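Input set for joint prediction.
Command: fold jointly, output tokens.
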Amino acid sequence: MEQNDIEARALDWVVRVGNPAFADWEGFQAWLEADPRHAAAYHGLSLDIEETAAVVPPLPVPIVRRRWPVWAGGAVAASLALVAGYAVLDDRAAPYAVETPAGTMRTVTLADGSAVTLGGATRVVLDRNDPRTATLDRGQAMFVVRHDASDPFEVHVGDAKLVDVGTAFDVKRSRGETRVAVSEGAVDYNPGEQGVRLTPGQGLVASDATGAVRVLAVDAASVGSWRGSVLAYEGATLAEVADDLSRALGVDLRADPAVARRAFSGSIATAKLAGDPRRVAPLLGIAIRRRGNHWVMTARP
Amino acid sequence: MDSSGLEAVFLANRPTLLRFVASLGAGEAAEDVVHELWLRIRSAPTGPIASPLSYLYRMANNLMLDRHRALRQAERRDRDWTETMSGSEAPSAERVLIGRQHAALVDDALRSVGERAAAIFRRHRIDGIEQRAVAAEFGISLSTVEGDLRKAYRAMIDVKRRLDEG
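tokens >
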């Protein structure tokens, strides 16, 4: 049957185009142009897969005697309200932490269909009985949330609260700073008198020490690009880049005071570094060398 | 490559990108989509890009996926609104129960493709790891990963259709 053939080919394209290294765009276009049903099939299947993947329940947590679920390497995920089965009956807070080691990434799907992707060395606290709340203790997480104006998704970070007004935003808490960047929809930072509403292409930096909050422009399309192993920067300090690379690669990379405040604009494809921070040195215009048990960015000799 | 470099590649290839967007079914909105692409490029100094034209194709592809996603959600909202107005909305406890049953069926469908394919699907689609990295993790070839993903995707599409009919 012809529709089955179209679907089989469409599925093949969905798989191949899903590889970031895909380059046969002309071949893809030739197939699309051959019949209008092809594009419809490609999009239909892409969305069907996306929606079904969003409701795949996480794997059950092994029972351990420690306080928090232990990440054991692989696809272990914290159990969520949908699987625990008490969401409707018990509305006391039931917090649990999800934590990643540096050099890894993990996506947690919540009971309402929202998703949180954690970067490396990140700790997020969720609530079994309330899928509409999360706390970012440290690290970086991208939130893609189901929008519900009557029950907005809230993220607590430090003393601040982010309330979702739309769908996709990135939060980073590290080195005494909180950074938020909005990709889709909008987010209210500390709604109320001192609140700031951020829309796509806007971001914010808040300093723990001074309490100062600064709104800045970000590239909406590259918000959360670290989930695809690309770190994108526009005038970020090398200290921040070192911190992000540490999280992404699972190494301890620091910036010497001499170079820490230098600004960098560009993209780093972390997969290409193959875990070796020295490979990024030419791109950043610095030297990277081993010092004791960690790596340091220094000025070139 | 700074934004002006990427913009130069865009301008040199604008007709090609327009045709690509049209081939993805943009219809009369094709110019709007290409304009949106241009806006995003302009506001983004992105640094060294190995294959700028491929990068632009991918951005265009993503914009069209976003567009179709939004259209589908709008259609659903319209349908839901109609159902709500006609008084056929299920009470919320029942909806939670249906949600749980659906998740269990989706889980069964994923398991049915076998342990490795299910694990590969989770690593790629849920954990967000790219296909070559997944191949390395599992110690298999990229084409084996692609085959497993095709199997898993097929199962996901089939279970979704059964649930939608249901």
